Amino acid sequence: MEINFAVSLTHVLEHEGGWADHPQDPGGATMKGVTLITYRRHFGDHKSKRDLRNITDQELGHIYRSAYWDKCHCDALPAGVDYAVFDAAVNSGPGRSARWLQAAVGAEPDGGIGADTLAKVTAHDAVQITALLCAQRLKFLQSLDTWETFGKGWESRVEAVRATAMAMAAGKQPQTTLTLDYQIIKKGSTGPWVRKLQQALKIQVDGKFGDVTEAALKAWQLAQGLEADGIAGRVTYRALGLLA
Questions:
Q1: How far apart, in whole angstroms, are the C-alpha atoms of residue 27 and residue 90?
Q2: Which of 26, 116, 132, 139 is the most buried (most CB within 10 A)?
Q3: Helix/strand/coil (H, E, C) string of the chain?
Q4: Residue 210 and residue 164 in one domain
Q5: What stretches in the chain show pLDDT beneath 70?
Q6: What is the pLDDT of residue 241?
Q7: Average pLDDT, the chain
Q8: What is the pLDDT of residues 52-96, one digit of tens each?
Q9: Confidence (pLDDT) at 158
Q10: Domain span holding position 35
Q11: Domain tally for the chain?
C-alpha cells in the first residue's frame, strides 16, 4: 500500500543500523544500509563519505523507494505483504523477493511482479502470504554456505519481519524493539556494546574490552571463518545475532 512506505522504511532501517566504515567490512562505508557505491550511483560520483554519513531523509527515501519498493510494486500490495516483500528485496534483491511472493500465491516465478501475480495476491489471505513468503526466505538463507556464520542474525531478522508484517496484515500495531545503531569496539573500548559482546561470547561481563575479551573474540572470529582482528563491527555483530 502506498501509505505504508514510510512505516515500512522505518522497520527496514531498524535492521540496517547506522554508520559503519570498518576496513575489513567488504561492504565498505555504509550509512543506514546504503553503501557509498549505491549513494554515488543515485546522486553522483562527487559524493563523499562525509556526505553519506549525513545522508538526508529525502535522499534515503529516494534510494529505498526507487531501488526496492517501486521495483516490487509494493504500492499495489496489501498491508504487511508490502513490508515483507520490501524488506526481502532490500536484503536479498527485488527479483528473489518477487519469486518468494510468487511461490506463496502460486504465480509464475519469473521474478517480476505483474498483473497475474497481483491478481493472485488479492485472492489469498495477506497473513498467510506473509507467513509463506518469510518461510521461503528463511529456507533460502539456510541453504547458503555462510549460514553457519551469519545464520543467527539472518534468522533473527526474518522472524522480526514476519512478526511485524503479520501484525500489519492483521491490522494490528507492530512492536518496535530493535537497536538502530551500534558501536564498533576494540581493545580499550568500554560501555554497553562491550557488555553485549561479552554476553554473546559467554565470558565475564564487565563492560571493559581488555586482553581476555580480545582473545575470546579473536578465537570466536577464527572459528567462524571471519577476519580474526579482534574488532567487533557490523559483520561480527550480525554473525553473533546481535544485529539482524
A1: 14
A2: 132
A3: CHHHHHHHHHHHHHHHCCEECCCCCCCCCEECCEEHHHHHHHHCCCCCHHHHHCCCHHHHHHHHHHHHHCCCCHHHCCCCHHHHHHHHHHHHCHHHHHHHHHHHHCCCCCCCCCHHHHHHHHCCCHHHHHHHHHHHHHHHHHCCCCHHHHHHHHHHHHHHHHHHHHHHHCCCCCCCCCCCCCCCECCCCECHHHHHHHHHHCCCCCCECCHHHHHHHHHHHHHCCCCCCCCECHHHHHHHCCCC
A4: no
A5: 22-27, 175-181, 244
A6: 80
A7: 90
A8: 999 999 999 999 999 999 999 999 999 999 999 999 999 899 999
A9: 95
A10: 2-169
A11: 2
What is the grid cell recorded at 175? 512492536
Residue 27's pLDDT is what?
Answer: 64
> Does 175 fall in a domain?
no
Q: Strand 30-31 and strand 34-35: pairing? A: antiparallel
Task: Say if residue 160 is in the same domain as residue 203.
Answer: no
**Do 115 and 229 lie in a common domain?**
no
Q: How many residues does the chain have?
A: 244
